Amino acid sequence: MVTMVSTIANKGRYVKPRLVKKIIDSQTGEVEEIEAKYGDQVITEKTAENVLSMMESVVSEGTGKNAKVVGYRIGGKTGTSEDGVNTGKYVTSFIGVANIDNPKFAMLITLYNPTGERRTSGWWSSSASGW
Question: b/e per residue, 65-84, with b = 16+ CB within 10 A?
């Protein structure tokens, strides 16, 4: 899912996820840069732009309102699913990208069986507790 959002944020061009940008040797101070690796254009720039715009509206006016940060344009998508059949347990998630003008970060947050008043619908949009 993070790869998908990274591809959308990079104008439809596949980008291989990486966990670190650089490694700094604490003994020598030597810095090893971890370069981003890009691949094929997998969706059109226009489609990526449209999806990113929709993701921004999720944060600005939809179920992802609590992901707003003043001074940043953030896009995201919330999700909820039942963990099994008739278990009463849920999995909730938020996947987001920032800053939409110049994307640098994509992240996925997943909560398994969260507790609280809004655990099954729009957990980013209310005063969810238990996470």
Answer: bebeeeeebbbbbbebeeee
